[in-house]
Write a structure and sequence with these properties.
13% strand; alpha/beta; 7-stranded mixed sheet; 11 helices; 438 residues
């Protein structure tokens, strides 16, 4: 692993910098002095869940946002597709991430709120799902699931670690099904357990050199290094938990394993299938936190759902310039996505979770980093929150010129999950007007 140059007040360190001990080599994180000269919360008794869905090209804003506000608002053309669940969702206008501008470059910041994605030396920060997973621990087989549709794995993801590292999205429903439900042989399980045990404690192995190295750092770098070591220790804890889960039988489901849709032009079919997998993961309590990123930017000419195809790739289509035919095709695909979302709400509403519907225990965030793809506008993002036990059935409208931070909604969602937190990303508090039903 290559590391940047390292400097201290007294000397320049080598470009390759590691801590070593007892056969273990631990690469260090990026510290200020490496630059060139220029606790878990306890498991809730009645678990809540979160599913975040993002299309990185968004939707047509005029057709999405209602013209009236409050609980008696008139449904917009797109929200008409969801009218049977009117009292189960809230549509929100006037939200965005402060300082998160730059058109398509913001797609990786939807759940992180990291400012300046086009600036030199930009580094992302922890995403909403990973933050929640850290705080809640791992009461399920998977702390979280990060899924993608037509995703470019090396470049795009909704999930990012505390150190700003992209977590690749799983884009194969069949592979996901196997991870969740197919039990390996006894030999395979034993091999996996042996791999986990052989890792031991990395930090214990390099403990002596850690202390010596830390004494040479300034206060800011020492704090950064402590955070890094904390992350490593938490990873080791998660490996221990993973070992425990390896010894437990996986849930049994009476369905056939899904077949992957490999044709990217069938992205609506892929989207529907991946949301079905997300619903299955939540239903079986395989996880309580799921992300799904629709990589519309990477989607070529595609099927519109009525045996017709678009005349251009999704990205080029989104730059419609008010061309009537392009807008018509975008309206058609947006309506299709609303229908897929409606079917997901219906599925969750039809599943009992104790005395509640699973929908009432699951927050579903639908939105995008793009307010208007036609103009590369990253303000007034299309945001809809369904389920989760909130008082819904309203259009919450904030200032469309001076947006409220989207992270305020994230703080409200985290608190609903049971995370004791009063800030996340660029938040200034919780989201005014969104209240719990009970």
């Amino acid at each position: 692993m290559n590391a940047p140059h390292i400097y201290t007040s007294s000397s320049r360190m080598e470009r390759r910098t590691f801590l070593r001990g007892i056969g273990v080599i631990l690469a260090l994180p990026l510290l200020e002095c490496m630059r060139p000269v220029f606790s878990r919360a306890s498991e809730p008794q009645s678990p809540r869940r979160m599913l975040a869905i993002s299309n990185n090209l968004g939707v047509l804003p005029k057709q999405f946002f209602p013209e009236t506000t409050g609980p008696d608002y008139e449904l917009s053309p797109y929200l008409e597709d969801l009218k049977m669940f009117r009292n189960d969702f809230t549509v929100i206008s006037g939200l965005s991430h402060p300082g998160v501008v730059g058109g398509h470059s913001t797609e990786n910041c939807f759940l992180t709120a990291a400012r300046g994605p086009t600036s030199s030396g930009f580094r992302n920060q922890i995403s909403l799902d990973q933050f929640a997973a850290e705080k809640l621990g791992q009461p399920t087989r998977f702390a979280s699931l990060n899924l993608g549709v037509n995703i470019v794995k090396a470049n795009r993801s909704l999930s990012w670690t505390r150190d700003g590292v992209l977590l690749p999205a799983e884009d194969s429903p069949s592979s996901l099904f196997k991870k969740m439900f197919v039990q390996g042989s006894a030999a395979e399980v034993e091999h996996r357990l042996r791999q986990l045990k052989e890792r031991g404690s990395i930090l214990d192995a390099v403990n002596a050199e850690t202390k010596q190295f830390s004494r040479r750092l300034g206060g800011e770098d020492r704090e950064r290094l402590d955070q890094y070591f904390t992350s490593v220790r938490e990873l080791e804890d998660r490996l221990q938990v993973a070992g425990e889960w390896e010894q437990r039988p996986k849930p049994r489901v009476e369905i056939e394993p899904p077949q992957d849709v490999r044709d990217n032009s069938l992205f609506l079919d892929k989207f529907r299938l991946m949301l079905s997998m997300a619903e299955l993961a939540l239903t079986t309590d395989s996880t309580r936190i799921v992300n799904v990123m629709v990589d519309a930017f990477a989607t070529p000419v595609f099927d519109l759902g009525d045996h017709t195809r678009s005349t251009d790739g999704y990205h080029n289509l989104s730059h419609h310039g008010q061309a009537e035919e392009k807008v018509r095709q975008l309206e058609k695909v947006d309506h299709q996505q609303m229908a897929i979302l409606r079917d997901l709400l219906a599925q969750l509403a039809g599943i009992k979770d104790g005395p509640h519907r699973l929908l009432d225990r699951t927050m579903i965030l639908y939105g995008s980093n793009m307010g208007d793809a036609n103009t590369h506008d990253n303000s007034n993002l299309p945001i809809l929150l369904a389920g989760g036990g909130f008082k819904h059935g309203q259009h919450l409208a904030f200032d469309r010129a001076r947006n409220t931070p989207l992270s305020n909604l994230f703080v409200t969602m985290l608190q609903r999950l049971g995370v004791e937190v009063d800030a996340f990303g660029s938040s200034t508090g919780t989201l005014t007007g969104l209240q719990a039903a009970s």
